[in-house]
Specification:
globular, five-stranded mixed sheet, alpha+beta, Poly(a)-polymerase, middle domain, 41% helix
Length: 400
């Protein structure tokens, strides 16, 4: 039903569905479904990420024997875009790090050839200090923090809430791509809204919607929810008075009430999002570009509203691409991954879909047969068994 040839607009439906009398909201619903199906990780992309995580974890354990490594964030919840970072947290079971070994990790990443020096960035002034880098072989970006267990708990909570709100992943993925297009998906670089933040905003919105007990038609539900989300935060939500909070059922709480109950002076920023794992933590406090984001939500609402108000016979093309597109950079990276790493997925049978991959946390819990070599970075091997630096045409495994 979707146009597989047009990769920058994977949600474009078959031409005969436009202008044939199908209501615009139904078309938008189908386009969101198409976008979600396209943007999710393929089996090859998932396994490449899983192998990269395994290599990084083995390296970390070789540096700090006895340390535990956990995946959190969007890769754990399944809400990652193709270029999303992978979040890892390291905890030392033998002794607590009073000062996170950020610069030691930076040195090891470069010395072992895991990351090129220009891609490594130590952020030691953030509320949660982190080491950011790009893994050399897979070109996947990583964020590594130390002794912060709340991220894993948050990811598990999100997974539970996905069960409660099945439409959450589709809404989140569209909105994450919307923010990424505008460079507003990174709190550190642009003052935008983090993946965790936009996910909590979506949950708060869906909680608010559930209070009305209104049931939407399955043929247009996603289109309505996207429009209502953009309207809710772009026009209706009083950010001066309320913070987004998913700990209750209404999706928000007054900032005054939070200041009173938390006993601190947070909740002063324009966008305040209460962390359900650490209730005194305001996820939105560093999103200094949040006002601009909300104005963009309003503009997107206006664009979509004009299109869905058209007579069905006047709709000649896709609706979602008025606010979302997939940049060529993303398409090129996915093509590169599939060309170079498709053999990561077993080709045992040529018929039928590939088996469902295990979750990241299951991969990390499995028994390993070897540790990370102190002097050798993650490399790739060709189907002929020759080692390469990751630039060969047909590597089939990441090796540590």
């Amino acid at each position: 039903m979707c146009d597989a040839e047009n990769q920058s607009k994977p949600w474009r439906l078959a031409n005969n569905l436009y202008g044939n009398g199908t209501p615009a909201l139904s078309l938008l619903h189908l386009e969101i479904e198409g976008f979600y199906n396209f943007i999710q990780s393929t089996a090859t992309e998932f396994y490449l990420r899983a192998e990269a995580v395994r290599c990084i974890e083995d390296m970390l354990v070789s540096i700090w024997p006895g340390a535990s490594v956990e995946v959190f964030g969007s890769f754990r919840t399944g809400l990652n875009l193709p270029l999303s970072d992978i979040d890892l947290v390291v905890e030392n079971r033998k002794s607590y790090w009073y000062t996170p070994p950020l610069y030691e990790l930076e040195s090891e990443l470069v010395a072992r050839g895991v990351a090129d020096p220009q891609t490594v960035n130590v952020v030691d002034t953030a509320a949660v200090p982190v080491v950011k880098f790009t893994e050399r072989v897979s070109q996947i970006k990583f964020d590594i923090s130390f002794n912060v267990g709340s991220g894993v708990k948050a990811a598990e909570l999100i997974k539970d809430l996905i069960q409660e709100f099945p439409d959450l992943p589709k809404l989140v993925m569209v909105l994450k791509q919307f923010l990424a297009m505008h460079g507003l998906n990174d709190v550190y670089r642009s003052g935008g809204i983090s993946s965790y933040g936009i996910t909590l905003m979506c949950i708060g919105f869906l909680q608010h919607q559930s209070q009305s007990n209104k049931k939407y038609n399955n043929n247009n539900r996603l289109g309505i929810l996207l429009l209502k989300f953009l309207e809710y935060y772009g026009r209706k939500f009083d950010f001066n008075k309320y913070a987004i909070s998913v700990t209750g059922k209404g999706g928000c709480e007054t900032k005054e009430q939070l200041r009173s109950t938390m006993g601190n002076y947070n909740w002063q920023s324009f966008l305040s999002i209460q962390d359900p794992i650490t209730p005194s933590n305001d996820i939105g406090r560093s999103s200094y570009a949040a006002l601009g984001v909300m104005k963009m939500f309003e503009a997107a609402f206006q664009k979509l509203s004009r299109l869905v108000d058209l007579e069905p016979t006047r709709i000649t093309g896709p609706i979602l691409d008025s606010i979302v597109e997939v940049p060529q950079q993303v398409i090129n990276y996915r093509d590169w991954v599939h060309y170079n790493f498709r053999h990561l997925v077993s080709s045992g049978s040529s018929s039928g879909p590939p088996p469902s991959p295990p979750s990241p946390e299951k991969i990390l819990k499995r028994r390993r047969s070897s540790q990370y070599n102190d002097s050798k970075p993650c490399t790739t091997s060709t189907s002929e068994g020759e080692s390469t630096d990751g630039n060969a045409n047909a590597p089939n495994m990441l090796e540590c």
